[in-house]
């Protein structure tokens, strides 16, 4: 089975998810800067989620490049990932409209956690299909970043109930880790994470 | 006529249908778990419909792989399928917001039934164009699952007026039948369905 | 310049237009059949517009198949067509929510008229680029249907102020003319149209 | 890394942005022409933004044609552009619903300015990857239009607080400059802009 339509469908769904979030930026009635003020937390959560979805598209793009063929199991692992990504607009809006309150911030982290688990399942399914010696398996490697992210999300969810801004700081930190392509930062984060446990 | 744009257009429409459903998950005003409670039936119907649309994309993907060329009749049979699929977000939201009440559950089943009929028409149109001896006709085969699903939807619609939760259980069962690629389960369901009549 | 992205972008925009119309089918609050009654005109106008947008996608698909190369002028003629198509969801909802009242029905016809004019401009621009002797020019031919449609839309718009249901009947007739691939029906419609003048 | 999915994802996001703006044209309750009157500024701002997004798609299309290969930096420069474009529906609706009031008009100009800066960053990133002697670098050239546009947006933002209609006239002028492929007009605008400083 060729991968063309898997990529096209994923691109379509991810493009819609990243774009419909802007519909939650409800147009205010006033025409002053003051009318925009209540939108600031909504806008901040929009930026964070936009970056997260872009990271997933980016990683999905890289991952699929090394893929040679797909099967039914892979199609479903991919749909499973898209399902969790599709919930990001909802939790983004809930968190933004409640000024990063504890429970919305925890739910946001939980959705990020399930996205990360779904991505991990997708990579495992792909490796199972291509073989442990394949170019794909070598390209994915030990996937430190992915596993560190999982741990960080759990820390973030727990922190939400203590200080939800700190939790969102953790989520932003994970996003930054994926954005900055410096290997040393990655290693530092890994060791920091290990010492946090 | 080549099939490239037929696939691209279908991918686009299905990607949008599966994604805009999340817009019906209206962001609650409160910031507590209690604020999320009324959303549970909406969320359950979202999951069911997400799986159904993913199944249709999956099957469409498999079906089109064996297609060699398309004509005007096939384009319209495909648009007809997309029309019924496009109604899923509406019936999903209606069913979810009314806690799986009888009439919404029956209408949900009716839309699933028409989607299945439209899919059947599409396969018949494709076979008529490619010939009964074509690779496509052999790949589709006798299409047991498709015909069993039709019968189950009718049972579900009728059951809605008796017990709408049972009806939704039937819809979930059909979805599970498409998800689980075990041939024995498929045969069991066929015989169960026959003994139900 | 290759035509690949022109097709991809048009497919994307048309797929979104045809799908977001369903968002105007606002979920009713009641759970009875009676709750659906006010939606009937909205649903009828949805079906009509769904068919129209599918016809445009279909014709666009056929038209672009004979296209060999594109230039800036063609890109803009295409964007101009997409602009008018993008207004269809708005006029569809306005007409549906006002039970096919005169002015909404006239505006609906006006948008259809401008879509048809934009399509005509696109074909003229394509022929100007490919030459009068090109395969494309021969494929388009004298474009009877296109010109008859223009006349019918004008008749429909004028009729809206007399009897708006009759106007919508005209719009439905034009759609049927494009759906039914019988050449004799086409000729009959042409002569009827001529005798109407 | 090939550019196929970068184009497909960008096409998807831009197609959605250009189309969801029409959702801000809220269907009025009355059925008269008078009911449409309050929508006129919203519609005017819709047209302006539709043209702007079409220009960006057009330019993106031209730019990517000369691109041979992409890297992670380019993917992110592209996502950065899509982020600013994704804000256009919001500022369009805010400006339209407030009849082109000063602050909404200034914010609209600011988003246009950031889109233009993001586009400039994308071209610089592409040239850095392809080399100053590449076909791409030559095709982009000195990019007079791009730099003039930046200056005009700043002028427009400042003018918003004096006369917001004049500011919108400036934005429309910049759009016209990109639409009209006459080199003399371009040069005239450049010299006018220089004499304005």
UniProtKB/TrEMBL annotation, chains A, B, C, D:
It is found in: Membrane. Coiled coil: none annotated. Pfam families: TMEM175. GO terms for molecular function: potassium channel activity; proton channel activity. Keywords: Ion channel, Ion transport, Membrane, Potassium, Potassium channel, Potassium transport, Transmembrane, Transmembrane helix, Transport. This is Putative integral membrane protein. It is a multi-pass membrane protein. The keyword NADP does not apply. The keyword Acyltransferase does not apply. Belongs to the TMEM175 family. GO terms for cellular component: membrane. The chain crosses the membrane at residues 9-27, 33-55, 75-95, 107-129, 150-180. It comes from Chamaesiphon minutus (strain ATCC 27169 / PCC 6605). It catalyses: K(+)(in) = K(+)(out).
